[in-house]
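re: that chain from earlier
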Amino acid sequence: MPHEPFTIVNPDGLARPKGFNHGLLAPAGGRLLFVAGQVGWDAEERLVPGGFVAQFEQALRNILAVIEEAGGAAMDIGRLTIFVTDKQQYLASLVEVGQRYRAVIGKHFPAMALLEVKDLLEPDALVEIEATAVL
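^ sequence. v structure.
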């Protein structure tokens, strides 16, 4: 049964968000789905070829697969946390990252954070993304 959409919370006193929202208020009665960090690998645990942008897209697709398996959709994502091993690589790829994001998630922009980390658990992974959805 579909639930009410999130209420977007972007206070006037904060900078205008670009590609995210400062806050999303979940509808009453929604169930939380916590999606573990996903890297850009396939079902055989092989990182997809094509570097950072390809791994970013596959990680999003993996997140969406978990959400859809639980009965949800991209619009149910309330929060994404993106971990990258190279912030400059992310910034240099913003146009392609945005295109891939919209191809997988559409024009739904949850609350997001991006963190540069020294390394990820999976060798050669360049990005890992975790999510919280409300179903």
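The CA atoms of residues 25 and 117 lie 28 Å apart.
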